[in-house]
Amino acid sequence: MDLLALRCFQVVARHEHISRAAVELRVAQPSVSRTIARLESELGVELFERRGRRVRLNRHGASFLRRVDRALAELDDGRRELADAAGSGSGAVTVAAETLMTVTGLLAGFRGARPGVDVRLRQCSADAMAHLLRSREADYCFASRPLAGPGLESVELLREEVLLAVPAGHPLAGREGVSMAVLAGEPFIAPGPGHWQRELTDRLFAGAGLRPLIVCEGNEPGAIVELVGAGLGVALLPAMARDAGGRATLGWARLASPESHRVLWLVRHREAYLPSAARDFGDFAVGYFREAG
C-alpha cells in the first residue's frame, strides 16, 4: 500500500467518478482503475460499488476513507511544519469560498499587505468544504453557515442583511417590508440546493406556507445579478451586492422577515498545522471584516 494509491483512492472517493478523478490526477483512466483494483486486492475487500465509470463508496470504502483522510492529513501537516521551521515554506495559503464576490476585497487587501504570499482560491458549495478542510486541501473556508464535523471551528466575520433584487422599474423596487405572500408567483433566480441563498429562499417561503417559483438555477452570483437585470426574475442577494453599485438595471427591496440576513463564517480545522502565511491570512481576514462592519 503506497501513498500514490491512497491519494488515488481519496480523489476517486471525492468525485465518485473514475474519469473525473483521472483528469484531476493527470493520469489515464485505466491507470486509475488498476490502482483502485490493486488496493482492493491488497485490502481484501471492495471499496466501491461500480456502475460503469460511476462509482460509489460502500460501507468499507467510507470507513477506510475516514482513516486515509486522517493519515494523509497528518503527513501533509508534517511536511508543511518542517518546511515552515526550515524557512523553506512556499508562503502559500489556500482558501475556499461559496462566492468569489465575498472575498474579492479581502484578497486584494491581503495581497497588498503580504505581496510575497501565494493565495490560492477555490469556489465550492458549503457541503464540499468540510472535506477540503479535513484533507488539508484548504486552510480556511468562507461559509455562510457554521460547518459541522469533528475538529472544525468557525469564527463569525460578518452579519449582513439579505435584500430582494428586482429588475429596474419593477413594482417592488424601493419597497420596504415586503412579505413572502407578496412574492408568491414571482419568478425567482436562485443557486441550486446546498447554497445559502437557495436555503434561505426555501426557508423564508416555507415559513409562510409557500413554495418559491424557481425559474432559473445558477451557481454564480455575478450571473444571477445579470439575469435579474435582464428581467428574467428576482433573487435574494446580500447587501454587499447592492453596495458594490454600478447596476442601473437593478432595483432593491427590503423583506419583512427578520430572518432575511446571512452570517459569513471563517472555518478551519483546529488540528491542521497552519504555516505562518496561513496564520497571517486568518488574522488579516478577521481584522478586515471587523473594520468593514
Quick gist of this model?
This protein has helices at residues 3-15, 18-25, 29-43, 59-85, 100-113, 126-134, 180-183, 196-207, 221-229, 239-243, 276-292; strands spanning 48-51, 54-57, 92-97, 118-123, 140-143, 152-167, 187-190, 213-217, 235-238, 250-253, 261-269.
List keywords for this structure.
293 residues; Arc Repressor Mutant, subunit A; D-Maltodextrin-Binding Protein, domain 2; seven-stranded mixed beta sheet; two-stranded antiparallel ribbon
Topology:
Layout: H1 3-15, H2 18-25, H3 29-43, E1 48-51, E2 54-57, H4 59-85, E3 92-97, H5 100-113, E4 118-123, H6 126-134, E5 140-143, E6 152-167, H7 180-183, E7 187-190, H8 196-207, E8 213-217, H9 221-229, E9 235-238, H10 239-243, E10 250-253, E11 261-269, H11 276-292
Parallel strand pairs: 3-4, 3-5, 7-8
Antiparallel strand pairs: 1-2, 5-11, 6-9, 6-10, 6-11
